[in-house]
Amino acid sequence: MTRRPLPPRRLLAVAAALALIGAPGAEAKNSQGQHRKASMDGTVPVCPLGTFLCPPRPDNYAICRPNAMLEFYDPTLTKDSTLRNTSNTHAWAEQVDSSDQTVYHLEGRVKMERADQRMESDTADYNDDTTDYDAKGNVRYQEAGELIKADHMRGNNDASTGTADNVTYQLLQSRGNGTATQGHMLDAQHSHYTNAIYTTCDVGHHLWEFKAKDMTLNKDTGVGVARKATMRVGNVPFLYLPYFTFPIDNRRKSGFLYPTLGNSSRSGFMVSTPYYLNLAPNYDATLDPRIYSDRGFLLATEFRYLNIFPGTTGVLNLEYMPNDTGKNDLGVVDQTKGDDRYLIKWINSSHIWGPVSLGLNINRTSDRNYLRDFGNDIYQASTEILTSSAYLSAGGSWWNASFGGDIYQNVDPTLPDSIEPYKRLPRATLNLDIPLNRWFDVGAQTEAVAFSKSSWSNFSVNPVDQSVLVGPGNNALDGKRFDIYPYISADFQGSYWFVRPKVAYRYTTYQLDGDYRQFGYTQQLAAGYQSPFTSRTPSRSLPVVSLDSGLIFDRNTSLFGSNYTQTLEPRLYYLYVPYRNQNNLPLFDTSLMSFDYWQLFSPNQYSGADRQMNANNLTAALTSRLLDENGVERLSVSFGQIRYFTQQQVQLPIDNACTKAQLAINGKCSAIPVPTNFNGSDYVAQITSQLSDDWRANVSYQWNPNTHQTDVGAFELQRRIKTDGVLNFSYRFRRTPGTTDVLLEQYDASIVYPISDRWRLVGDWTYSVLDKKTVQALAGVEYDSCCVAVRLVGRHYVNNVNIYNPTTASANTAIMVELEFKGLGAFNGQTEGILRRGILGYQ
């Protein structure tokens, strides 16, 4: 069994060792766990427009000053060090004295070369019998990975020993450079250095550097030991370490990672000092003790493993805080003072046998306030539901199956537990797609699942003192569901046309548990009347027939002096599903999906199997595209509508047509279901444009022909600024389905503006028209020098919205500073992640 190495973990002084042994340049690892490679020539990979999350921008050393030390560097010298043992040594000098017949004295522009090695000096003595050498005066040495200057070098070639005085070095691949008073090569694998300095800054212009009084390197183990080491920033001592060990190559090594400092209004000032444990080549761990000034001590751990059992890989994160000393919160249910608090995150993938594998994704917290108190940013703090799942899965060329389950946890302290979805435990699926011949396929989608939901307590918030009022509990209907969806489909197509008929049959049956008669739904036409379920084993069966067809025309055209291929693609989609009364079926995991362009061609407007819409519909759509000479789509325009020939009678009951903002004290609401437009759906238009590599625009629009109002509108514009800047603007508008009420209207603008090669401005602003307030605002500045990068970011954002009393919504203002020493890593490490997720196209 071959063990693949886990990703390396960057330690405090890893580069200090790499500098003095000539190892290849190592990659720095940023706070998000991704590798950041250095760019030596200034070229930066441009993130394509429209990319949701761009990769980190590589460290750029092209802005460094020209390095005078490179004047003797010869780029034509081979970089293959494996040729040394089979290559001859060639020597040149203005004068050679070989009167001794054993010791050769070379003088005047001396140069000795073997494979990738070259040494130049004023004078040199070489003993042909013992292979001793002694070079003096302006000694310059080049090999595949580094350059070295010294006043004096002496040693033995066969024994791989040597001593150099007054050493100055530079790594060719990682920009590392520095000095040492003296270096001793004890043998080919062991070295010792005195008064060693390392930095990635310009030679002679060290904004930061590491200086170790004593340093020993062991290439066999890949471990270095430094004593009395000090990191200096601008000639000011910044960090002192009397003794520490570190890796000298890409092998991982136990040791301290960068400390993290933080502050929040929820937990106070925080200090984190993670320690990395290199336990084995295929598994490791990180211990992260943290102190929160307002809450106490928390220990976070991460355990990574690869093939610890055959075919198994995963990450386990545990966090634990004993006896939370923080204050209890008004306006929330979970009061955590004095409680033990924890978080569990476990992602695992195991190959069991043949096509069978096991996947785990476990996420649990001790209480609903945990992510808000200890989450790193707004994205964690705004999470409402944690999902945990475990599945055995298998598959082949025409089938796949799974067996497992899903459970959920409410982690929003402002919402009742009734918002938790039903547990799906156990759940089994089997999907088939069997090709019969060139045109026909048969298949089936099958699911068997048991649903359960724990009892919950209703709660409300006292508007006077924000205390929590807990009411009597509610129970939920439990049951089991079996859904089978067999079909036969065909795909007839030519170069400019296609016809795809499909005939399916859907059968769904239930077995309800407990006293099912106490449950039911308020009917739309009789508000306030609840119709109880009448059968323990309700079922539904119906056919689903569809016919999808289209034509594709194309022609050559030109626009703004460029040649394009223009297509015209009319499409018709007919769907027939007979009506079945489904008011006696429960709603376990089904909801109404948002209407958009792709819903024009969907056989069901509901997610899940609890509802299947009836239909006698015809969708007409038209798409036109512009393709450039390389086949890249530069413009796409689509327009369509569904025409209804019969009434859509399958509707969600009132109790389930709810949004988060409409939830009442008992977790229900009185929203009216979306009425059917019996003539046609909204007109839907969609435009995507990228006529150049620097501009991109998207438009989505839905217009209601009955109300003559816009139901949905969205506009996105993205502009590339030079190579590493971007401008974004977006507008989003949405009405509550079936009403004239505006549900959402927001503007968002963000920018990364490069002032120069060293300075960039960043900003992000989100404004809610309905609330007439700023949802989030961010502004900052970035400075990038040869070996140091600094980010200063200020952020104002809403971090807690209580739907029962929206006036109590609280906001937080944070100022974050991140200092990065190129080649070592960053202190803080959070600002880049926030900017990459908050600004589309940020690198």
Could you write a compact summary of the structure shown?
The protein is mainly β. Helix content is 3%, strand content 55%. The strands form seven sheets. It has a 31-stranded antiparallel β-sheet that branches.
Distance between the termini: 39 Å
Oligomer: single chain
Strand content: over 45%
**What is the overall pLDDT average?**
80
Low-confidence runs of at least 5 consecutive residues: 1-5, 8-42, 524-528, 655-673, 803-807
Instruction: Estimate the global geometry from the Cα principal axes.
Output: elongated
Rounded to an integer in angstroms, the radius of gyration calculated over CA atoms is 34 Å
Largest sheet: 31 strands, antiparallel
**Tally of helical runs:** 4
The helix content, as a percent range, equals: under 10%
Number of strand segments = 53
Class from secondary-structure proportions = mainly beta
